[in-house]
Amino acid sequence: MAEFTLDLNDDQKQVRDWLHGFARDVIRPAASEWDEREETPWPIIQEAAKIGIYSLDFYAQQFFDPTGLGIPMTMEELFWGDAGIALSIVGTGLAAVGVLANGTEEQIGTWVPQMYGDADDVKVAAFCSSEPDAGSDVAAMRTRAVYDEAKDEWVLDGTKTWATNGGIANVHVVVAVVDPELGSKGHASFIVPPGTAGLSQGQKFKKHGIRASHTAEVVLEDVRIPGHCLLGGKDKLDHRLARAREKAASGGERLKNAAMATFEASRPAVGAMAVGTARAAYEVALDYAKTRSQFGRPIIDNQGVAFQLADMRTRIDAARLLVWRASWMATTGKPFTSAEGSMSKLYASETAKEVTAQAIQILGGNGYTREYPVERMHRDAAIYTIFEGTSEIQRLVLARTLSGMPIR
Ligand SMILES: Cc1cc2nc3c(=O)[nH]c(=O)nc-3n(C[C@H](O)[C@H](O)[C@H](O)COP(=O)(O)OP(=O)(O)OC[C@H]3O[C@@H](n4cnc5c(N)ncnc54)[C@H](O)[C@@H]3O)c2cc1C
């Protein structure tokens, strides 16, 4: 088991510097344009694919880095470049992880490559769980999956919302209800292959931030998919449902919620995205404070400004440490006894919102305009306290874990 260390090894430093170069030279200069266009930055995804940053191999390598620091380091550097473009590059990973976590080896081998395509023909994928009436309350999901035994097909019906890459994805991973009696234990994940009839894009959302990332509704009307598109396979599902029914009938001990454990492990990655955005805004503010003069001296000469920068940097470093700890715990299989994954996401996302707001303040009127990047960074930062579980939900998980009480 890898010991926890704050020293990146030589390989990690090399990858970090390579990612930073791409974020500095390709992502950051394009950020404003794609924010205004509010479109998926296909040419930038293609650039990333050409040099290997947009590929399953690269993410698998970072994911399996035994120190646990590969993914947070990757997220921080790319999101330092720009959050909207970076999400367009890493958004496919959410769907890929859904397949890696629940799929058979054959399903992984078949579908994950189709999610990425290749450098000449890049593709993206979408993970569709949220619904109009089931956001934080995942158990309220209504999209149904019914098995048609005669044809060995699953039939999906429902409306998904807020899906990153929804409708433009080559492969959609859809979570649906197979047994409504069992709440979230009655859910299963399905692959909807490219070009399947009945899947269409609903409304595309015009957003406050991360505007280069495509977010849309996904409508499923009598979507028929082959039986082998159920992730994990029918036998595994039947076995899992039978166990859940037994537990429910006996009123016995609750099944360990695997989904919660997965969330704890994936939330630090969102925390790392937030650290990237916060660090970017802090650097712009520090630079500006040293060069902007008022009353005959740089504004950083005022403690009121310098102390803000000191606090910003302290919070960013604290956020990174929480993220790295949680990522190391996830990789080395340490149990999240104090909801350390949620803690890292909560702290880092709130930090990004505050630090980007402080950066606008330090830039004064310029900070409030689109001539300077901190205005965009502040809009982007607002997403981190919402997706992958809102800050309130992180606090709920923490409060329940720490107290052992059913806090509501
Ligand atoms: C840009 C973007 C991209 C997204 N990408 C995806 C994606 O790819 N796939 C996907 O499936 N989903 C995605 N989501 C959905 C996201 O995960 C949900 O928006 C999020 O889980 C919150 O759900 P909601 O928006 O329905 O808010 P609600 O659940 O309605 O919450 C509204 C408010 O009530 C609070 N609240 C709710 N319940 C409680 C409670 N018990 N205690 C205290 N406060 C509570 C919340 O914290 C929040 O402040 C995305 C969302 C956005 C905005």
From TrEMBL:
GO terms for molecular function: acyl-CoA dehydrogenase activity; flavin adenine dinucleotide binding. Its cofactor is FAD. Residues 126-223 form the Acyl-CoA oxidase/dehydrogenase middle domain. InterPro entries: Acyl-CoA_DH_CS, Acyl-CoA_Oxase/DH_mid-dom, Acyl-CoA_Oxase/DH_mid-dom_sf, AcylCo_DH-like_C, AcylCo_DH/oxidase_C, AcylCoA_DH/ox_N, AcylCoA_DH/ox_N_sf, AcylCoA_DH/oxidase_NM_dom_sf. The keyword Oxidoreductase applies. Pfam families: Acyl-CoA_dh_1, Acyl-CoA_dh_M, Acyl-CoA_dh_N. Residues 10-115 form the Acyl-CoA dehydrogenase/oxidase N-terminal domain. Gene3D superfamilies: Acyl-CoA dehydrogenase/oxidase, N-terminal domain, Butyryl-CoA Dehydrogenase, subunit A, domain 2, Butyryl-CoA Dehydrogenase, subunit A, domain 3. Keywords: FAD, Flavoprotein, Oxidoreductase. Residues 258-402 form the Acyl-CoA dehydrogenase/oxidase C-terminal domain. PANTHER family: ACYL-COA DEHYDROGENASE, ISOVALERYL-COA DEHYDROGENASE, MITOCHONDRIAL-RELATED. Belongs to the acyl-CoA dehydrogenase family. This is Acyl-CoA dehydrogenase. It comes from Streptomyces solincola.
